[in-house]
Specification:
homodimer; alpha/beta; Rossmann fold; 5-stranded parallel sheet; about 45% helix; elongated; methyltransferase activity (chains A, B); SAM-dependent_MTases_sf (chains A, B); transferase (chains A, B); methyltransferase (chains A, B); Salicylic acid carboxyl methyltransferase (chains A, B)
Chain lengths: ~260, ~260
Amino acid sequence: MDLGQVVHMNGGDGETSYAKNSFHQGNAVSLTKPIRDEAITSLYSKTLFKSLAIADLGCSSGPNTLFVVSDIIMVVEKLCQQLNHSSPEYKIFFNDVSGNDFNNIFKSLDNFKEKLQDEIKTKMSSCYFFGVPGSFYSRVFPNRSLHFIHSSHSLQWLSKVPEGIENNKSNIYINYTSPSNVVKAYYDQFKRDFSVFLKCRAEELVEGGCMVLTMPGRRNEDPCDIKYCCYYWELLAAVLNGMVLEVYIYKHPINEKEVFL
Amino acid sequence: MDLGQVVHMNGGDGETSYAKNSFHQGNAVSLTKPIRDEAITSLYSKTLFKSLAIADLGCSSGPNTLFVVSDIIMVVEKLCQQLNHSSPEYKIFFNDVSGNDFNNIFKSLDNFKEKLQDEIKTKMSSCYFFGVPGSFYSRVFPNRSLHFIHSSHSLQWLSKVPEGIENNKSNIYINYTSPSNVVKAYYDQFKRDFSVFLKCRAEELVEGGCMVLTMPGRRNEDPCDIKYCCYYWELLAAVLNGMVLEVYIYKHPINEKEVFL
């Protein structure tokens, strides 16, 4: 079975859904708005496209998914009004792993379109929506088919648990107790994955196309600094290890592969 | 709320799902295979496309959905092998109303691709899949973006319950007890809907593109002949009317609008 059917954001819009628990990711989307606005403005002034294909990679399902799209369309519509151009035909591609809750995105599209039309005020051009299932660590779009690629808070998810980290005992990610080979294994896996990502996107973007990527990072070189990224993995590992001790779920200490694969 | 979120095939793959209860529709898909094969063969010989965009409108969710697509790809691959051409880039668009279970289609794509690759034997070109939510009684695809449109057992679903059929008492569709204005109202609604359908598709198809539509029909002119189409609506109406009498669900006799809107 494809890993994307197992590891994905929690669907629906209930209390434990990603849609209701993605405030932090929503914050990143808000903070990066000026960068996206600048990128799409520059792209429009360079190309004056009549048809604009936008892809959100790792779109998940919830308010953040549609916020980015509405944001980009609003900027383009404003530019069109300023320049007295007719607005382009929009093609919006929502991409995520095959286990993502695309049904939930699709069900919210009618309200979204109505709200967007209200905000734009003038009659906007046609807007077509597509769900695109598949890992962005592979080709998911035809050659030269996208003008603008966006991805936020998704590229920190690797394509798989790195090889050779069996000695990372009782952890489910890098931790201050992890041996140095574990840190290197994660770093190497990220390098491989990110190279594949860039290679794929280079084939999918039209010439002169544009990409805005946001991913969490650290302010220092210590990959185990809990202040910047590893805290919740340590917390989760501690809980899982506690369950091992108390209810004997596993017969031996947990590691990444047992948790994620 | 969009009607497509309420009226759609039953999702999932459980006992009551459309996926498990679409043998009849699957039969139609099998019977029309020669027509599709001929159409795609003719299209290929005319255009020798390097990129082939196929849309299945009203695709629902289940084995029939993927059967049609696999069928078309197999024909094109065989032609390519015969003519010693490299196979085209496939873009497959699954369209249905926004309440359709697209998640279920997407989850089955990995197995589907593996099986297809096994059957084709030679290495086929890239194949990209897209879910497209929205009623086919409106524009759902960009201008001139499709080469081949397929729709089977979907166009008998009208965009809405026709106006002016309040005198069709105790029925939920045309029945032998229906007044003649009801028959005319359904006929007019179908004419309007089918015209819109054709107008939209004409804008979405590339020049020289092709369309294969299958829909249930009658062998005589009597629209109430239960042998050809109305039997299950009469049965359903009888059950609903029985429930009205027994448990007082409705305070007055049912009609279409109460059932479907």
